[in-house]
Each structure stands twice: as structure tokens, then as C-alpha cells.
Amino acid sequence: MWAAARLRAIQAWDRLRLTRHCALNPGLVFEPGASTNLAAGRYSLEPGARVIFRAGVHADRTPGGLVVMAGPNATIDIGPGTWLRGEIDPVRLVAFEGAELTTGPDSFLNGCHISAKQRVRLGRRAWVGLGSRVFDSDQHDFDAERAERIAPVEIGDHTWVAADVTITKGVRIGNHSIVGARSLVTRDVPDHKLAFGSPAEVRGDVGDRSEAP
């Protein structure tokens, strides 16, 4: 009885914190049914940015376990049922000016860093593991004569990107594919393939992952 009352009090407090986050960051939206644990996150939205957490998005109640930064007119859209796990390392979601970062339903982001300067899209039930990084750009100019290059990244449906993987600009990870731990992905991985290495190469086949536990 006391435990239930305490839980209700915590949730009520977190709902107030969510309201405050939205007041401080116009364009921040928590749909009904999104976890009140999202109140523990850190949010920074520039003018015109829009960040949406759909119904059923879950996060750990770890202070700073979720860091969200959206530049002017950027969009971050976290699909319904997505789990943002940040109790070991924070989940960092960054969309620069005018960029788009989206996840499909039921995705799982575990202590990873995803950065979009143009577009990064994750499909349905896409998993990105602890310490992994996804970048759609070089992040900086190479030198005075070679400017930064930017190209969209797509991670398909029912994919699994394991721990400590780096995915670079312009890459598509196919549906039902797996990328092994500590890989560097510099080119596309077709559907239903296992890839790993630095740089990652296709090493085998993967069956249907729709019902994977």
C-alpha cells in the first residue's frame, strides 16, 4: 500500500517536471502514455525545433540518462514503444539545424549516440547497443579545401547494431541484419546479413528477426 502511494507520488512529481520541460522548451511533446521517467532527461531545443516522444516510449529514471539536443527547425521523433536505456551510459540524441532524426516503433537504444546533420532514420524494432555511434556526417571540415560531407543514414526494420559500433555517413543497414560488436560500418549492409569488422564486411546470413526475443 505504501509502495503504491509512493509510486503515485513520484509519477505525479515527474508529470510536473515534464510540464516544466515543455514550458522551457517549446516544441517538446510527450504524448499521453509516454513514460514519466522521461522527466529525468536533459533537453535543449532551439527555436523551431520539434521533439516528440510517442505513446509507450520508456526511459530509465536515471538523472542525465537521456540527453536530447535539437538545433533550429530540427525534428526528433521517437516512435511508440521505443525503450531509451540510459542507466549505464546516457542515450544521446542530437539533431543539428534543419535535420531529422526518427525511430520506428518498438526500437531499443541502449547508451548510444545518434547524431543527424541531415537525416538519420531507424526502422521498426531497430536495436542500437551500448557505446555505439551513428553519424550522418564527417562532423567537421577536413581542411580548408575539403568541406565536411553529409549523407543520410538508414537503419532498417528488425536490425541489431551491437555494442561499440560506429556507423558513418551514407550507410544503409538492411532489414533483419546484424552488425557485430566493435565494427566500423562505412558501406551498406544488405537485408538479412551479418556484418562485422573494421571496416565491416558481410560474413553470413541472418533469418527473419521479427519474432526474435
Write a brief structural summary.
With 213 residues, the protein is mostly beta strands. Helices cover 11% and strands 35% of the residues.
Explain this structure to me?
With 213 residues, the chain is mainly β. The chain has a single domain (2-205), classed as 3 Solenoid (UDP N-Acetylglucosamine Acyltransferase, domain 1). It contains one helix and 22 strands. It has one helix at 2-24, and strands spanning 28-30, 42-45, 50-53, 58-59, 66-70, 75-78, 83-85, 91-95, 100-103, 108-110, 113-116, 119-122, 127-128, 133-135, 153-155, 160-161, 166-167, 172-173, 178-179, 184-185, 193-197, 200-205. An eight-stranded mixed beta sheet has the order 4-7-10-13-16-19-21-22, with no helix packed on it. It has a seven-stranded parallel beta sheet with strand order 1-3-6-9-12-15-18. Strands 2-5-8-11-14-17-20 form a seven-stranded parallel beta sheet, with no helix packed on it. A hairpin with a 2-residue loop joins strand 21 and strand 22. The radius of gyration is 18 Å and the shape is globular.
Secondary-structure class:
mainly beta
**How many separate domains make up the residues?**
1
CATH topology, by name, is UDP N-Acetylglucosamine Acyltransferase, domain 1
Uncertain runs are none
How helical, in percent, are the residues? Answer: 10-25%
What is the terminal-to-terminal distance? 33 Å
Strand content: 25-35%
- Number of continuous helical runs: 1
Radius of gyration: 18 Å
For the largest beta-sheet, the strand count, sense and barrel status come to: 8 strands, mixed
Instruction: Give the strand tally.
Output: 22
Instruction: Please state the overall shape, judged from the principal axes of the Cα atoms.
Output: globular
Strand order of the largest sheet: 4-7-10-13-16-19-21-22
User: Architecture, according to CATH?
Assistant: 3 Solenoid
CATH class: Mainly Beta
N-to-C series of helices and strands: HEEEEEEEEEEEEEEEEEEEEEE
Please name the fourth-level CATH homologous superfamily. Answer: Hexapeptide repeat proteins
Mean pLDDT: 94
